[in-house]
Every structure is written in C-alpha cells, then in structure tokens.
C-alpha cells in the first residue's frame, strides 16, 4: 500500500464530507439599514448537492446556491416571508437582497465548496 493511501486511511483522518466548512459574512447594506450587524452563516455543500443544483439549469441558480448554503437566517421561516413579501424562500431572498448581494453570497458558498479559489498547488521539481 502506498504511503499516501495509508495516510488517507488512518482512523484519525476525519470524514471530510461530513465536516463542511462554515463561515460568517456581514451583509453591509442590511447592517447599515438595521443599525446592527446582520451576519449570515454560510456552509459549503457536498459534491452531490452541488451537482444537483448545477443540473437544474435554472435562471435562478445563484438563488438556489444561496438557499442551499445559507444556514442562518433560515429563509424557510414564514416570518421572513411575511416581512419581505415572498411566497417562497426564493422569492423572499429576491425581495430581501439586491442582485449583487445574491451573487456575492452565492460565490461565497461556492468558495466554501472549493470553487473560485486555489485548492491545489503544483509540486515542482519532483
């Protein structure tokens, strides 16, 4: 067995699919409007979920990525829908956030999934 394979099979190596990265992001415009920090908690998505989202070919792909990756606030909460006038979580997102904010949050979720950042590095002279 190769050294790399032995390393990856060690029992102390965590199940990396179950330990998805999370980050908190301050939403500037909403923070200014509320007079307090509005912090969204985002989580990376497992490969299967990302694949499902990308297969939908929806014009609202960024909204669906945002909905899948935002842990807090819960856009399924009916109180948010009532406050911002959305009949569905997707409509609530579009009513609450600007298009650029939706795109930025979606990209942040993608970065947590390993997209749009350097995740590998070339080993030279080997």
How would you characterize this protein structure?
It holds the Pfam family Phage_TAC_5. InterPro entries: XkdN-like, XkdN-like_sf. It comes from Lawsonibacter hominis. This is Phage XkdN-like protein. By secondary structure, this protein is mainly α. It has one domain (20-112): rbstp2171, CATH 3.30.2220.30. It contains seven helices and three strands; from the N terminus they run αβαβααβααα. It has helices spanning 3-8, 28-34, 47-55, 61-69, 78-84, 89-96, 99-112; strands at residues 22-26, 39-43, 70-72. It has a three-stranded antiparallel sheet. The model has no long low-confidence stretch (mean pLDDT 88).
Topology diagram in text:
Blueprint: H1 3-8, E1 22-26, H2 28-34, E2 39-43, H3 47-55, H4 61-69, E3 70-72, H5 78-84, H6 89-96, H7 99-112
Antiparallel strand pairs: 1-2, 2-3
């Amino acid at each position: 067995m190769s050294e790399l394979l032995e390393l990856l099979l060690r029992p102390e190596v965590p199940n990396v699919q179950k330990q998805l990265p999370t980050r908190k992001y301050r939403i500037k415009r909403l923070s200014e409007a509320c007079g307090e920090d509005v912090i969204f908690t985002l989580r990376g998505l497992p490969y299967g979920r990302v694949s499902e989202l990308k297969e939908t070919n929806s014009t609202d792909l960024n909204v669906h990525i945002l909905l899948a990756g935002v842990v807090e606030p819960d856009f399924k909460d009916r109180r948010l829908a009532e406050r911002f006038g959305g009949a569905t979580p997707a409509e609530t997102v579009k009513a609450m956030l600007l298009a650029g904010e939706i795109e930025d949050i979606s990209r942040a979720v993608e970065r947590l999934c390993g997209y749009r950042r350097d995740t590998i590095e070339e080993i030279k002279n080997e």
